[in-house]
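Long-time lurker, finally posting.

We've been working with DNA-directed DNA polymerase (Candidatus Companilactobacillus pullicola) and I want a structural starting point before designing mutants. I don't trust myself to interpret raw outputs, so I'm hoping someone here can both generate the structure tokens and explain anything notable. Sequence follows.
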Amino acid sequence: MAYQALYRVWRPQTFSDVIGQDVITQTLRNAVASQMTSHAYLFSGPRGTGKTSCAKILAKAVNCLNPHDGEPCNECEICKAANENRLNDVIEIDAASNNGVEEIRDIRDKVKYAPTEAKFKVYIIDEVHMLSQGAFNALLKTLEEPPANVMFILATTEPQKIPATIISRTQSFNFRRISRQDILKRMEFILNDKNIKYDEEALNIIAASAEGGMRDALSILDQALSYGDDELTLKNAQEVTGALSNEQIVSYMTAIADNNPAEALTNLYQILASGRSALRFTEMIIRVCRNLILYNSDSDLSNKMDKSVMTNELLAISDKFDNSRLFYIVDQVSATQKNLKNSNQTDIYMEILTVKISEPKVIEQSTAPTADNEEKAGSAELDKLRDEVSHLQNEVKDLSNGTVIKKAEPKKTHRRANTNTRLNKTAIYKVLGSATKKDLMAAKEIWPDLMSMLSITQRAMMKVAEPVAASSEGVVVAFDYEMWFEQAQDDSEFLKELENNVSRLMKKDSQIVLVPKADWPKIRKEYIDNNIDLNNQGNVESKQEPKKKTDPTVDEAVKLFGDDIVDIKND
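Top reply, 14 upvotes:
Generated this for you. Predicted structure of DNA-directed DNA polymerase:
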């Protein structure tokens, strides 16, 4: 016989075999034993939690010739035929591929006929939420007034898509995710029955990866056994599931604790290069932070830590994290997870996350104000209001005395320069004045070599930047994120190093000018609007001289000081 997957070989054959759904199986068993079964059931819940298995067991149990306390005997002819999928009175339908009105009308026409072998004709409709609205309407009448010898069992992973009129005509059972402990016990039972050696840590990793689905757990276990030649080791489980090794997560979290972005990025690149999933990586970071919070909070809570994650090495660095920082890391990782699910640039998001959670300055800025600070802020606001009231009272008094009041000049406030003041438009326009496509292509060609010359932290910053214009005199570099543009613009040493490296690679002096990518189209349009090509000025008869190209900075200076004072010199 051909090899069968574990989840098929070990599919439950009785209600007592079903794992993690005790309330549901007990209810169904009692209903069969007391012959009080309903004409229609709705089984809903996550994938791999036993919905279809319970449907098949219920179909056997109501038709079994020798039931025992509501359980099928699995020995009579009816049970054997059902187990071998040759019982004509149990009809399984996949609603995903049979979701039309015609298919449901066919069922409605055939339910009138009596069963050929068993007592009940049982229709098991899997993924019933895939039926069309017309198909649901066709099914509704049959569910409302079914023949006495017919039973419908509907199974779905998305019950919210099923019309309320259908749900109200069924007995609804919600299957919950199976606990990790129950999954572990089931896998241990199977491996012991097959006399296969296994590592308990490997089983823990598989149980965590299954996310509450027994079928998923057995599929991963099957894959790990094939990879390890019928032996389950920790390394095999990590390779198959994409889980991180203890050494990898310890090295990464240690670099985060030491506020060392360069070391953290090095560990990140090694983890991603080993084929680990970025999403699984973020899940592991959250699990580690959760356990560290429990460990730091209370001795009783520390007993609830996940021992498979918290190694002695991680516990050794727990004092480097306080709970406020751990909460901050969890918030940042959760936000990154949303971006990872909707983007193909997983590496960039992971780099940004790593720099964010490993730089102490960012952490300090992100911490919420303390109660003392809030109290001080409230007191200052109250004092300010009192001063304003007193000032207004004095003004009213002066007005009543006929005194002329001069309006107080508002105090000048110093604000941080915005992005426009950070932009060096003169340098950008200088590059655009002689920019060519050939120079831009040359800049893009040397870009990979330039990246290899930078440090790990600088490389992470420049990965979100690219040349957008180039000439014989310089290169305009646009940044995807304004945050990185500001950081690079403020780092004069980095800019100087960047210019030296570009000049060396292009074998000529080249100025590097930075710009946020969001502002680049506007800047380019401004340049085009303010600079008219002399070759396109063609009205000779009007004898009007075409406007010369001007520099906006020069125009502003002339406007402020006048033509007599400003002396323009070309470089």
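Before you design anything, note these points.
The beta strands are 40-44, 90-94, 121-126, 150-156, 171-174, 465-470, 474-479, 511-516.
The radius of gyration is 36 Å.
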